[in-house]
Amino acid sequence: MESTDPIKTQIVDDGPAGIARAAALLREGRLVAFPTETVYGLGGDATSDRAVAAIFEAKRRPSFNPLISHLADAEQAEDLVLFDDRARRVAETLWPGPLTLVLPRRADSPVSLLASAGLDSLAIRVPAHPAARRLLAAVGRPVAAPSANVSGAVSPTTPQHVLDGLSGRVSLVVAGGRCAVGLESTVLDLTGEQPVLLRPGGVTIEELTALLGPIAVPEKDPDRPASPGQLASHYAPRAQVRLNAGAIGPDEVLLTFGPDLRSGPKVMNLSDKGDLAEAAANLFAMLRALDRTGAGTIAVAPIPETGLGAAINDRLRRAAAPRP
Ligand code: TXA
Ligand code: MG
After folding, report:
1. CB 186 within 8 A of CB 177
2. Which of 29, 127, 264, 270 could form a disulfide with 132 if both were Cys (CB 3.0 to 4.6 A apart)?
């Protein structure tokens, strides 16, 4: 299989020729990394068991962790899962965009059982990035895509990040610039009576509450993740991560937020204006850059918990969690 023997990873831009090449490879069952507005995805044909297995293998991901099926439009989603009024309402308002819905899988859903890891539900998303939309339309099938990084590492927001982790393990990378949102999609479970937030992300809980009313946010229990993929340690750089830092120690570099007089090679500011959207877009790239300094620990200044801050802090807490 392609992911065991190193292959030559090609890179194309997101113009018509690159998209056509990427779509053809996906239809052949090969793996293609592509840009979305959240992070780069490692795509494979969601209807092919072999392609889905190759995704798990390339990422070295535990196979109990189910994948999101990406679609060109909401209409296509109705073939895979059962929609209700709530799902239609959020889909109409927030798709295309950084929101994943977990819905009951249709009995005749063409998606590989491996992609949903044996669950009765399926996660689906219609991404907003123009290149992702063109690619999905050209493929004409659902594309399973986790973030295009080795399992447990920091998610990729540039083509170079993808190559750093997966060069030789993916057939093609579609280069489509920096991801505008920079954090993974929000995962909302609509299989039960009350909507449940499985992962905070690019759509805020405030936006969802405005549309749906109260949303359950499960207690964090690291031994029993609500979403199967929500392992406590995740998004981890090589360096240790220390949260809510004030002053920094000798072997530390600083990731700060908002007005801060400290600057220099050991300091990066997620957003000196204190803008959480800008901070989200910078988060993963800055964690990678600070990691490359070789410092023992990345100290992180406090970040507000409101709006996109909830998702930013979720990722930072996972980066700081004890490693297996
Ligand atoms: O922004 C994103 O969502 C990116 C881009 C590429 O679209 N993808 C992404 O995929 O972050 P991944 O595989 O890294 O995260 C998928 C999350 C995991 O936490 C997984 O457990 C959860 O969605 N998930 C998938 N299917 C599920 C299901 N049937 N029930 C509950 N959670 C599910
Ligand atoms: Mg991921």
Report:
1. no
2. 127
